[in-house]
Amino acid sequence: MAAAEILADLSHIFPPDRLLTQSAQLIPYESDALTAYRARPQAVVLPVAQEEVIQTVRLCHQHKVPFMARGSGTSLSGGSLPVMEGILIALNRLNRILRLDIDQRLLVVEPGIFNLEVSRAVAAHGLYYAPDPSSQAICTIGGNLAFNAGGAHCLKYGMTSNHVLGIKAVLPDGEVVQLGGESLEGVGPDLVGLFVGSEGLFGIALEVTLRLMPCPETYQTVLAAYNSLEKAGDAVSRVVASGILPGAIEMMDRLAIQAAEAAVQANYPPGAAAVLIVELEGDSHQVEAEFARLMGVMQASGADEIQVAKDEAERQQIWKGRKSAFSAVGRLSPDFIVQDGVVPRSRLGAALAEIERLGQQYGLRVANVFHAGDGNLHPLILYSGGEAGALERAEALAGEILQLCIDYGGSITGEHGIGMEKRAYLPRMFSPVDIDTMHRLHLAMDPAGLANRGKMFLTEAAQYLTPSGSVQL
């Protein structure tokens, strides 16, 4: 009865073309970028105004129906997997810029705006938005906020949480709140910090106030090729130990290089086992001094070849290869799982060697693409979903890599979140007391467990389908 009642109530808010209930209409929303899992929502609503989102959440609270917000569905942890029989609120049409303050260097946007559109919108004013995940051309600010996204330049500039000043949000009971404001200096508890990275469990952001940065005066982008992954990993430690703080340090292994070359012809050194991209940015005098030191470090790191971008076109070509790596790996395998565990930089070389060994043990290829500067690994485990047992083998290998990160003193996630994928690994990293505290905080915000139900905590029932069609609880 609740299903029929809420659909009837939603039909008073949304016209038929923005209230999707037919099977063919729901199929595109069944999965996110973690395509091994799927679930079908009861309905998808397409709001074009904040008030429609608020009304939908209030109806869900009234009828005790779970809901979740979705941007572009680029989550790699199943974080935007629909709640089975729940209401999916698609926010792509809430993509407006509401206010730009050049003097204060801030921008107020709706959650459905693409990450890259923010920087494009303010480029003429010499400003940009620093967090730059690889999917920045299609991922939304709302999704970035939910999972505290980082990107290639998070080493120097931090994660999404370091660039969100304020949030207008609707809580799971329908209350609309304003968290934070327009200043870096907050007063009282850091409620913005609490909300950012909460994976949709605390409600839905309606407006986000972003901190903008002045565009760097100049860049120096260096690409170094190595004959082993371990040697490239050790080079990262050398750069950081030198005292230089690059804007970005990124690494790709042989498989990722092959995929990027096939996709975008990035002109990386042929035959390299790994390439390291190090980018300096800032004022000309600072970059010039750091560049001289950096070249000394790179030449002493055992690199087989070192390239320096001569102009902006060459710089963009280097980054095009790195940014396209995730999607390009689809050329090598019909399916893949990507992890985002973190290890201390000092253990990076050893971790890469161990991942290589584990891949051989499981008989699976692993393409490594990651934010080397902060030890955020992104191993892409290649498998064929049509092969019996292949997904299970890939998931077992992914679990071994996550355990490796924990054993090395790191984390099971750097920016992709827990979602559905890593729920079983949360207790390996945190004590029962820690998890109980997290869960109690969640229930304080959402006693009925309606917002993005089933994510993060094993204590909450969740249903989804695997390629074999089995239902998991």
Task: Compute the average pLDDT.
Answer: 91
Low-confidence stretches: none
Radius of gyration, whole Å: 22 Å
What's the CATH architecture of the largest domain? 2-Layer Sandwich
User: What number of domains?
Assistant: 4
What share of residues is helical? 25-40%
Spatial arrangement of strands, main beta sheet: 15-12-14-13-17-18-16
Question: How many beta strands in the DSSP annotation?
Answer: 20
Strand content: 15-25%
CATH fold-type name of the largest domain = Alpha-Beta Plaits
Note the total helix count. Answer: 16
Give the C-level CATH assignment of the largest domain.
Answer: Alpha Beta
Structural class: alpha+beta
Please give the alpha-carbon distance between the first and last residues. Answer: 24 Å
Secondary structure layout:
Elements: H1 2-10, E1 19-20, H2 23-26, E2 43-45, H3 50-63, E3 67-70, E4 87-90, E5 97-101, E6 106-109, H4 115-122, E7 127-128, H5 141-147, H6 154-157, E8 164-170, E9 176-180, H7 191-195, E10 204-211, E11 213-214, E12 218-226, H8 229-241, E13 248-253, H9 254-264, E14 274-282, H10 284-299, E15 305-308, H11 312-323, H12 325-328, E16 335-338, H13 348-362, E17 366-371, E18 379-383, H14 390-407, H15 426-429, H16 432-445, E19 464-465, E20 471-472
Helix pairs in contact: 1-3, 8-13, 13-14
How does this structure look, described?
The chain has 473 residues and is of the alpha+beta class. It has four domains: 2-90, Uridine Diphospho-n-acetylenolpyruvylglucosamine Reductase, domain 2, CATH 3.30.43.10; 100-214, 2-Layer Sandwich (Uridine Diphospho-n-acetylenolpyruvylglucosamine Reductase, domain 3); 218-328, Alpha-Beta Plaits (2-Layer Sandwich), CATH 3.30.70.2190; 333-452, Alpha-Beta Plaits (2-Layer Sandwich), CATH 3.30.70. It is built from 16 helices and 20 strands. The protein has helices spanning 2-10, 23-26, 50-63, 115-122, 141-147, 154-157, 191-195, 229-241, 254-264, 284-299, 312-323, 325-328, 348-362, 390-407, 426-429, 432-445, and strands spanning 19-20, 43-45, 67-70, 87-90, 97-101, 106-109, 127-128, 164-170, 176-180, 204-211, 213-214, 218-226, 248-253, 274-282, 305-308, 335-338, 366-371, 379-383, 464-465, 471-472. The strands form five sheets. A seven-stranded antiparallel sheet has the order 15-12-14-13-17-18-16, sandwiched between helices. The longest helix has 18 residues, at 390-407.
